[in-house]
Give the backbone structure.
Amino acid sequence: MTGYWKCIQASQYVKGALYWAAKRTPAGFPCLQQMISLLRLGGTIILEDVDDVSYTCAPLHSSWTILLDAFHSAFHANGGNAFIGRDLPGSLRDAGIKNIRVKIHVGTVNPGEYRRTHLLSLLDVMHEKVVASGVLTKEQLTGHRKALLAHLKNPNTLLIDKLLVQAWGQK
């Protein structure tokens, strides 16, 4: 099994944090069966991850769209899934979990908060992969990054964050 994962067993509950492990594994959730094996009959399993479907800014800026598309392209090409949150309930169902419930949260990110420039930070980390993919040249990436940073610094820009999806059920 690769990637980060942790399983916590406390009486009848197991809570799993699959944030990056799930995203980096195109085949699904490799530790889900292990987590379920730790569960007592009737115990609850809880999964949590993000889904980029809501991730946007208003007013929409062309550099936001271009950079988010470039990130998704490079991330998905390297085995990631930025929309994994919506798959959590189905993964639990496919694993035989019953009484599945889902709660979805979304918030806004204010100026000065770290997540305000999270997309730019992700692109900084994936810079070489984005350029190597041919989606953007180094110059285009730099130009769009600069334009988007100025847009996000504007306190009148609304940034809607990624969905935080929580799904749980019983063995």
